[in-house]
Write a structure and sequence with these properties.
The complex is a heterodimer of chains A (266) and B (287). Chain A has 266 residues and is mostly helical. Chain B is of the alpha/beta class and 287 residues long. Chain B has a domain of 41 residues. Chain B has twelve helices and ten strands. The longest helix of chain B is centred in the middle third of the chain and has 18 residues. Classes of the chains: A mainly alpha (266), B alpha/beta (287).
Chain lengths: 266, 287
């Protein structure tokens, strides 16, 4: 159940994309998202698909694994699809009772659903190919210029690192406590909504207690090693931008330029 | 209640880059009323194995029979199994959640749908078994007790379900020597009194040597050795090669034997060593 969630997971394959500078990857993902919203016709999607597919192939992450990440978002995509198909005004194709489906609605629905699918696939490729630590490192660097206007870049990055670091720990802990309570006869799966919510108490109370304990211990351990925020902090591994990063960046730029041209032309 | 494990294999995260074989063709038979010591290095598959016995994990392949219930079969009522097999996890005090000690211990019996009077009786009984004073502690919050007491409350919570098979995963980890001895004594007492089957997972060779009838050694998801403590601890080289050891007193006797061959080295406890050394001194005097 919990392990079905693939969004935000790291999938190590050691490919060229995995080894890229996280800053560049974040910027390219940003360009990719913007270009998805530049697209206003299906021809534009051809460029997007070409870009996305080649990125997936280079990353060596199985396509099925990325598609699995779409599962939890299927409801959202489905709702968007439905709203668009029924709510768009235009030439009526056919009607079922009070609902009418228009030609424009069909077009719009497919267009929007595809946009969401591409959005999720592209962004999950970023997290799948970048370890959480590298990702937050990249975010910290990108936010650095905003420090002057009071953005606590280091603190934000540190908070994200810690939060990400504790996701697997908490999942493990949840699994352990769940099993311990099941062994004592607890039932998490059957019953109506209220009895199920009540059934969660034996899981949530120990989980909260241990999270607070962990947070306390971590803060103490950090202080014991003289942690005092980002001032004058240097790092062991400096981020380096290489040839392939510039290449990828130019491909990303090419994508958005092509899409803008496509939008103006057609 | 007896346990039979046949050819059990378990794979974590199958078909992903994180795939690991935690258990690899395990075959074990445990008779009714036996006291088993399960030892192995961290990651040897001990915890995975004991979770199978409670139906918390289903094996990827293989068959497990508890009593006359084939728990790997189709449509098994796991609730019935969990009545029979009590599982005390590592650091069980982390699972406490109720406002009072009484309510926490009653959680298991309540899930068995017992009557109020039956629950009350079981809570009293299991608190007595783990040497917790019922009257003074029943209304206290488990979170204001000491570490050793909390551990006992958690163990009492499992004992209150009156399992025929009791499995304990390192019940003494992180306790002081006195707390450790007390808990082990209570487990021993329980076993002697009810003749239930006990499986004790431990890293302490001394504890294992003192308590168990038979030892199962695991390594890399397989059974490396099994047999009576004396037989197993004879193989000190083999145990050391997989990151385990033998009781220190056995180690000492092995060294003494190298000095004088007439000393018997098959000794597991300090008591036995004393007897053996005295015997050796006397026999030397006589000669």
């Amino acid at each position: 159940m919990l392990k079905d969630i693939t969004i935000g997971q790291h999938y190590p394959t050691g490919s060229a994309i995995h080894k890229m500078d996280p800053r560049v990857k974040i910027i390219i993902t940003f360009i990719y998202i913007v270009s998805l919203f530049v697209v206003n016709n299906f021809i534009g999607y051809i460029y997007v698909i070409a870009f996305l597919l080649s990125a997936i192939l280079i990353s060596k992450v199985p396509v099925t694994y990325i598609l699995k990440g779409l599962k939890p978002l299927m409801i959202l995509i489905g709702i968007t699809f439905m709203i668009n198909i029924f709510m768009t005004a235009g030439e009526v194709v056919f009607r079922i009772g009070p609902f009418t489906i228009t030609e424009e609605g069909l077009y719009q629905a497919f267009f929007m659903a595809l946009r969401l699918v591409f959005l999720v696939m592209g962004t999950s490729l970023l997290t799948l190919t970048t370890s959480p630590i590298a990702l937050t490192d990249g975010i910290e660097h990108i936010l650095n210029p905003f420090k002057r206007i009071g953005v606590p870049a280091h603190e934000l990055a540190m908070m994200m690192t810690i939060a990400l670091r504790f996701i697997p720990t908490l999942l493990e802990e949840t699994d352990k406590i769940m099993k311990a309570q099941i062994a004592r006869g607890a039932d998490f799966e059957s019953g109506n909504l209220i009895s199920r919510a009540k059934g969660l108490v034996p899981l949530l109370v120990p989980l909260f207690i241990s999270s607070f304990r962990r947070a306390d211990e971590l803060a103490m351990a950090m202080e014991a090693r003289c942690y005092r925020g980002g001032e004058n902090r240097t790092r062991m591994k400096e981020l380096k931008t290489q040839g392939k990063d510039y290449f990828a960046l130019s491909v990303g730029t090419l994508l958005i330029v092509l899409l803008i041209v496509n939008r103006i032309w057609f | 209640m007896s346990i039979k494990i046949e050819n059990v294999t378990y794979i974590y995260n199958p078909k992903s880059p994180f795939e690991t074989k935690a258990l690899d063709g395990i075959n074990i038979e445990i008779a009714d009323g036996e006291f088993i010591g399960l030892i192995g290095h961290t990651g040897s598959g001990k915890s995975t194995l004991i979770q199978h016995l409670n139906g918390l994990i289903k094996p990827t392949s293989g068959k497990i029979t508890v009593g006359d219930l084939v728990i790997t079969g189709e449509k098994v009522k796991l609730a019935d199994l969990r009545k029979k097999v009590g599982l005390v996890f590592q650091y069980p005090e982390h699972q406490l959640f109720e406002e009072t000690v009484y309510k926490d211990i009653a959680f298991g019996p309540k899930n068995l749908n017992l009557s109020e009077s039956e629950i009350d009786e079981r809570v009293r009984e299991s608190m007595e078994l783990v040497k917790l004073d019922f009257e003074s502690l029943k209304e206290r919050s488990p979170f204001e007790l000491s570490g050793g007491q909390r551990r006992r409350v958690a163990i009492a919570g499992v004992l209150a379900m009156k399992p025929d098979i009791l499995i304990l995963d390192e019940p003494t980890a992180g306790l002081d020597p006195r707390g450790r001895d007390e808990i082990l004594e209570q487990i021993k007492y329980l076993h002697d009194k009810y003749q239930n089957t006990v499986i004790l997972v431990s890293h302490s060779m001394e504890d294992i040597a003192k308590l168990v009838d038979r030892i199962i050694v695991m390594h890399g998801g397989k059974i490396e050795l099994q047999g009576f403590p004396r037989e197993v601890f004879k193989q000190s080289k083999r145990l050391e090669s997989i990151g385990l050891g033998i009781p220190q007193i056995t180690h000492l006797m092995e060294k003494l034997k190298k000095v004088d061959g007439s000393i018997q080295e098959e000794v597991l406890t300090v008591e036995e060593a004393k007897v053996e050394i005295l015997r050796w001194i006397r026999s030397n005097k006589d000669a």
